[in-house]
């Protein structure tokens, strides 16, 4: 889906259809991250792992030990995204 970058006051912007924002749970605020030549927008309200760090620290302080890093073999999101785009000749295949 291609959109035009428009001048909005001094900065530039892209108008995103309301249905797309709603499907991502985005209402009034987004978390913006730059991954190479990608701009990633995320809802600030959807944080499924919020509080995990504190829970792990508390568990370890109480004598629980992690069994290992279950994510150590998973590639970072920018590598996965790059591969998906390469495979689809720059079109999303998800």
From TrEMBL:
Membrane spanning stretches? none
Top-level taxon in the UniProt lineage: Bacteria
Domain SpoVT-AbrB, residue spans: 6-49
User: Gene3D superfamilies attached here?
Assistant: 2.10.260.10
> Which InterPro entries does the record cross-reference, listed alphabetically?
SpoVT-AbrB_dom, SpoVT-AbrB_sf
Please identify the protein, giving its name as recorded. Answer: SpoVT-AbrB domain-containing protein
């Amino acid at each position: 889906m291609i959109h035009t970058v428009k001048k909005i006051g001094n900065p530039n912007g892209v108008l995103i259809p309301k249905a797309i924002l709603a499907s991502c749970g985005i209402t009034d605020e987004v978390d913006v991250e730059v991954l190479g030549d990608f701009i990633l927008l995320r809802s600030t309200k959807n944080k499924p792992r919020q509080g995990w760090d504190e829970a792990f620290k508390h568990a370890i302080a109480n004598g629980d030990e992690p069994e290992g890093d279950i994510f150590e073999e998973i590639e970072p999101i920018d590598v996965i995204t790059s591969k998906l785009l390469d495979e689809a000749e720059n079109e999303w295949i998800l």
